[in-house]
Amino acid sequence: MLQRAFDAFKLLKADPATSLPPTTFSILDISSADPLPQNLLNSFDSVLDTFGLCSVRDPTQSVINMRNLCKPGGKIVLLEHGRSAFPLQFIADMLNSALDKTAQNHAEKWGCCVAVSTRFSETRRLDSGVDDRVQ
Questions:
Q1: Which of 36, 50, 66, 90 is packed most tightly, with the most Cβ within 10 A?
Q2: Which of 3-17, 36-50, 75-89, 118-132 has the lowest mean pLDDT?
Q3: Residue 34 within a domain
Q4: Of 21, 27, 22, 23, whose CA–CA distance to 2 is shortest?
Q5: Would you tell me how many other CB atoms lie within 10 Å of the CB of residue 76?
Q6: 96 is in which domain, residue-wise?
């Protein structure tokens, strides 16, 4: 997937009508407990993860690493799927019923590891401005 993004970026950058900031692509294991490369720590304005936490070995470590990659004041943006906690119970029940019926097929097709999914129970605002969600 990163290769696709890199290829698309090269095409955009080659277009003289497109103004893009300096950009670096890096590949690393976000879920590893091994130390992150020093040159990447506190260096990103934002870290974006879309539907990926259910597919990594250690979702909690992944979020910790994302936080460590962000500059002070940086943002972590997570777009995830899962059971709904929508305030209107009957809507949450409908959504959860549909998700429950399709969860196994979704996991098999997209590689979601349901057993390692992380459920966040608390959200705190850190001094850096990044939401820290604690299991």
A1: 66
A2: 118-132
A3: yes
A4: 27
A5: 20
A6: 2-122
Is 76 a domain residue?
Answer: yes
46's tokens: 């934002």
131 is a domain residue: no
- The first and second tokens of residue 131, run together, are 């939401």
- d(CA 92, CA 70) in angstroms, rounded, equals 33
For residue 124, report the phi and psi dihedrals to the nearest 5 degrees: -125, 145
pLDDT of 51 over the 50 cut: yes
Q: How many domains does the chain have?
A: 1
Q: Residue 98: inside a domain, yes or no?
A: yes
Angle (nearest 5°) at CA 14 between 8 and 18: 85
Mean local confidence (pLDDT), 108-128: 54
Hey, what are 92's tokens?
């949450």
CB 43 within 8 A of CB 106: no
Residue 27 corresponds to which tokens in the numbers above? 């590949």
Per DSSP, 128 falls in state T
Per-residue pLDDT of 2-30, as tens digits, reads: 778 878 888 888 888 877 777 777 778 88
Tokens of 42: 């506190």
Token representation of residue 19: 């103004």
